Amino acid sequence: MSEQEVTSTDNVGKNEDEIDPAQDPRLELLAKKPDQMEKLIALCFVVAIVCFVAMMVFYVKGSSTQVEGALMAVGFGGLGVGMVAWGKYLMPKGPFEEERHLIGSTEEDQKAFADVFIGRGTVAVKRRSFLGKLLGLATAVFGIFALGPIMDSLGPNPGKALDSTAWKKGSKVVSEHGRAIKVDDLEVGGFMTVFPEGNVGSYDGQTLLIRAGSSDIVTMAGRETWGPKGYLAYSKVCTHAGCPISLYQQETEQLLCPCHQSLFNVLQAAEPVFGPAPRPLPQLPLAIDKNGYIVAQAGYNEPIGPGYWNF
Amino acid sequence: MPSLLKKDKPKQTGAEKATAGAKWLDDRLGLAKGGRVFFNKIFPDHWSFMLGEIALYSFVVLLVTGVFLTLYYVPSADMMTYHGSYAPLKGTQVSAAYNSTLAISFNVRFGLLVRQMHHWAADIFLGAIAVHMCRVFFTGAFRRPRELNWIVGVTLLILGISNGFLGYSLPDDLISGTGLRIMFSVVESIPVVGTHLAFWLFGGNYPGNGVIIPRMYMLHVLLVPAIMVALVGAHLALLVKQKHTQFSGPGKTEKNVVGTPMWPGFMFKTQGYFFLVVAVLAGLGGWAQINPIWQYGQYFPYKVSYAVQPDWYMGWLDGALRIMPSWEFQNFGYMIPNMFFPSVLLPGIAFNIFIVWPFIEAKVRKDYKEHHLLERPRDNPWRTSIGAGALAFFFMLFAASSTDVLANYFNISLNLVLWFFRFATYIIPFIVSAVTYKMCLELQALGQYGGRRKRFNVVLRTAEGEYLSVKTPARPGDLDILSGEEEEPLELTEQVSQKLRESAELIGVSGSESTKVQPPADEGVRTVERD
Amino acid sequence: MAFRRLHVDWLIFLSIPFKLKYLRKLLPFVVIATVIMIAMTTFRSGAQISKSGSSMENLASVSTSTSSPSGSTTTSATTTTEAKPKPPSVNTGPLLYESSGTPASKSQVEQGKIYFDQSCSSCHGMGAEGSSRAPNLVGLGPATIDFWLTTGRMPLSNTIVQPERKPPRYDPSQSLDIVAYVTSLGPGGPLIPNISGVPNASIAEGASLFALNCAGCHTITGAGDELASGAYAPSLHQATPTQVAEAIRTGPANMPRFSPGIMTNRQVNDIVKYVTQSIQHPNNAGGFGLGGVGPVAEGFVGLLIGVGILMLFALWIGDRS
To answer: What strand order describes the sheet that includes B42-43?
Structure first.
């Protein structure tokens, strides 16, 4: 402790000054044959120059990324190897030593600082504590004001936006290209991504239309009429993380989410059977209108997609 | 100093000019004294001290390549028809962001190289941070007085991961768009304020009104890098102020630093290392394709590709999402979604433990002293085993993020792979911890005989079938690594000597003239030079 | 030397039994967890195998009943509803191709029966009516039979959950004979698709359709990946244009079926062109494609090769004591 206080930073390099450079073993080079090493390093730098010149040429002429990458790698590799070798083999090999001092200040310094800070400043500030409070209040009021523009600029409040989708009673089921889907369009084992008419491409309207073998469907109470002629429609948005579910395994009648491998049973109201998804996919009640088009009986009766704190 | 600069003396005119220039600066800034201290700063020679430099130089490459990319990238989600030179997408609807990224890849000379270097630099930046952090952790370099620098480092890691994710999402390709959607769900899952935060971030319900790309761009190129540059500066300033740690060894004490001075030796080495980092990144950028967005296509919220994973540094979070059981808590009409636990709570807890670890350890070990000499991992078995267990845990989470790829590669059922990870992620870290603990103790036991030469044990089988493990005797010149003194040759106990002698006789070796065991012949001895 | 010597610097910990009593206490839990894990997984995969077997039969029976509205309501062996102007031949077998109105010849059917009896009948039955081991083939249609034969998935080499692609046992013309024979047993099902429009198809449109309908399972690079319940989406890199179109139309195994009501012939051709050109010959302008599996492979390359090489450089630059 006391020893370190005595040693000042000015003495750091003392050792080098005292020792006769000619006899200081630390100043020797690591390289046994410095001249040879110098030639090698020079070669490295020449390689780098050649590569960089070639890069200029290829910049003008145009070339493939592979040629560019290789030239750049070799060029910078030459520079790097050369410089490291120069520093490692042609410079004093050391090891040198530096003294270390206690990082914290001495007690006198700390006390002197405290005297200045508390003695001079705090007294002057504390005497007018009311002003201080007023200053804080003024800043706080501005802060509250600033919340308004900031929050408005960032985005709207959620409100009911997450509760409903573009599907409503009588929405025609249309394809990605806006074509209305008729009852004969899908064979058993077929599936497609559909949207409500007028909202093609919407995120929350995306729905999977599946035609399953009607005999195997286990209908839940209250959903008896939702799946005419073996057609089932589930929200394509996974209830886990909101990925679009695109993996329909028609033989095992399962839907698999590509992101985290949640598995849903198509025949049993898309109940999750495996993976992290906690809730079944919401089902869209379907009907077939008099012209043979598939339409929605109503919108989804629950929010689609991942869970959230309904606040 | 003069002695170091001696070689430059013959170049009189150049040196004079430099001196004059330096004097001009010093007259105005007063740098000579501080500069001398700075150029005398000693950097330890051990290779593990260079790991942080990989991160630093990757960061420099990120800044430089990033500036180049901003000259071409268009942060806009406006849709347009693609007329660029990648034939398969001609005539399709793409966003301006995707269009400009394709242009960088195909129409800008060196554009694809720079883009790929930027992406590789991000991967390697975070990889180097992870390795550097392991070095700091396992050697106890975070102990007093370096707790603050540890916290700065952890903050840099968090910011690096965040910025990596932001940059990954900018091209607006199919895979990154899916990642963005998951991020919306992650934010949405935070109890009470989640939906509000998500709406504020994305400017409305997903996918927002096209504001997320310009916002991410602002964060990615301005806000986060600015903070990171400041923190990197603080990280290095603290390093200079507090000086390096070092491993213990001959001549190395708590009160000095032994190594190469900043000027000129270390400056050349580290500058060369910077060039080597650039070289490796250029090699990867030119030859290893990363994120070929032209193969992925434009993102649409209803399109998706299978086998979507985030970049590796986000992989552990993705893995945590996958192995989470399908739980969701619904009470009083309010829901805590499934996503909250693995994607908000887990990283929250993990990073907070990282940050407070130096204080936890100081408290547990009641060790509030300053430490400048590093511990070898074996010297602190508890810390090492906890760290190894944590590493194993994160590695298992990371591996779990590729359940589908693993299942496909090894041709096993996806369900089986998932169940394996659901258990193994929690079991394996404990096993790794226990084994590490044991290994540390064993290495400690070996350590006190560590001299200039590695002395090894000989396993002997006696005539009775008993196995003996005997340390070979010290030989002249064997130095104790700690004291530096010559070791006393180790006398074997009479009992062991007797057994050895008997067995030697039995197999017909004349070892009977000495009571000491014959030292093994040189051919079998592996000598390790230590400097 | 005299003694059997062993280096034990690092390995010594193996020779000493674990004394950690905590580990021993944990052991029962580990054992129980492992047993539960194995039990659950075997239960699952077992259930899956039996299910896929039964649904295979469902598939066959269902498709005979439902595919009738789209194509052939006639009971004649030649479904000539689409190919009216063709002159009736004496030696006509069933119609196999969408594109040509020429039906298969009788000799093809006869030759096909020989092959079928040799290689297929042991499982599918002498009349292709199916058995407990294999599904009914009657009425599946030429495209289905052709797909399974030309991709080498049939005849099966061993019974596993999902057959794998391998070199086909029969050359294309022999396969066609079998197709002709099986088709002659009963009508229905999709014909071998017409891919003559592929050269004029739009790759861009194909890319868009692929991302919506195919990438979900086969991945956007066509590398394929593991699905749930032991099923997998195969790689598309070896598929021929005809096979791609057949797979789209017939939905082999777990793949859904994209009937003309979902996807027009032109759209199928767009996808075929995209798969056989862009997917099978990807533009890897950036270097090695790393298997087309995305960030997982990239992460390993970055960490092992990138950081690895740099650490080797560090070893050179610094000390190694």
So the answer is: A96-99, B256-261, B42-43
